[in-house]
Design brief:
Blueprint: H1 2-12, H2 16-26, H3 32-44, H4 48-59, E1 70-74, H5 88-104, E2 108-111, H6 118-133, E3 139-142, H7 148-162, E4 167-171, H8 174-186, E5 190-193, H9 213-234
Parallel strand pairs: 1-2, 1-4, 2-3, 4-5
């Protein structure tokens, strides 16, 4: 029953249902090859081995041992109704950055979307962590940026205002790190990557070869980052 249930739900829910629709239409219309291609492509980007394959070049990051006097953490969305206001991705980033700042006794600089007062909500999360675990860090909040390029630009302006040396630990999700490094280096920073929030996972079971929204989501973010990297390298 477990095997039947897994197969049934994989193809009843998104994106598996689209594969069934494409296959059905392939045998009912004259666009057989195109629809079969769409079915196979949708299946491939919806399974764990392929999402891992797409993520691996992004998340394969060398972690240098050098030290930095500041830690910069990038925003990643908020959830208003939760106890912690940061989204799951952002929360991992903030906790990791806060742990670095506390352990090495250095300032933390948050850079995130002014739209929605993201910085204000992250300040709430940091204060909550400080009170819960009895530590204190010096934190600064940049709240104008709306994307990675602006994260770097406005953080550089803040560093100039505070007269901080532009040598930083950079904390963001692993799949996003390479694009973030490009942008921050262009803004004049010496960057020491400190990735967290890895999406790839190489422990496989048989149903990882069935379509799932989780793998589809991860493939989407991989494609999103590849496009962002090309833009950061050649257009920004």
């Amino acid at each position: 029953m477990f095997i039947i249930s897994k197969i049934f739900t994989s193809f009843l829910l998104f994106p598996g249902i689209f594969i069934i629709i494409f296959l059905f239409l392939a045998f009912k219309t004259k666009y057989k090859k195109s629809l079969l291609f769409l079915a196979v492509f949708t299946w491939l980007i919806s399974i764990k081995p392929i999402s891992n394959l797409l993520l691996n070049p992004l998340e394969n990051i060398k972690i240098p041992k050098q030290k930095a006097p500041y830690v910069v953490v990038l925003g990643g969305g908020v959830v208003d109704k939760d106890i912690f206001k940061s989204s799951a991705h952002q929360f991992k980033r903030v906790v990791y950055a806060a742990s670095i700042a506390a352990r090495e006794n250095i300032p933390l600089i948050f850079t995130g979307a002014g739209v929605g007062q993201e910085a204000k909500k992250v300040k709430h999360d940091i204060n909550y962590l400080e009170k819960s675990f009895n530590f204190k860090i010096k934190a600064y909040f940049e709240n104008k940026s709306k994307n990675t390029k602006q994260n770097a630009y406005y953080t550089a302006k803040l560093f100039k205002k505070l007269k901080f040396k532009k040598r930083i630990y950079l904390v963001t999700s692993a799949f996003h790190m390479k694009r973030a490094v490009i942008n921050f280096k262009k803004a004049g920073f010496e960057v020491i990557p400190r990735p967290t929030d890895y999406l790839s996972n190489y422990n496989y079971v048989w149903y990882d070869f069935l379509p799932s929204m989780d793998s589809f989501y991860k493939s989407y973010w991989a494609f999103h980052e590849y496009i962002g990297i090309l833009k950061a390298k050649f257009l920004d």
